[in-house]
Amino acid sequence: MGDSVIYKLSKSYALRIIKLYSYLCDEKKEYVISKQIYRSGTSIGANIAESIYAQSDADYINKLKISLKEASETKYWLELLFESDIINETQYNSLSNDINTIIGTTINIINKINKK
Length: 116
Description:
Layout: H1 5-26, H2 32-51, H3 57-83, H4 89-115
Helix pairs in contact: 1-2, 1-4, 2-3, 3-4
């Protein structure tokens, strides 16, 4: 499972969020939203990592749904950062595209399991 696409995507995204957090604190002196996006953006992958040892399909889906909630929250913080001119359009589009890929992939996994 550690080799799964969603695991790799979410881990890579978490690393980007960690770098974004450093940038926001060091360059933009933004400490409130940066902490929020740090928590939600890294939690996506943490829940996917937890799902590796799910006890059932229902448990697995539950972990993935928690990841979706965290991804949705991350999108919200990204929108606030962009709309308040803290990050630029290029930064926003890049991070937003990646989170949309994670959301779409996670939904596809959930749908496949539910069709079993």
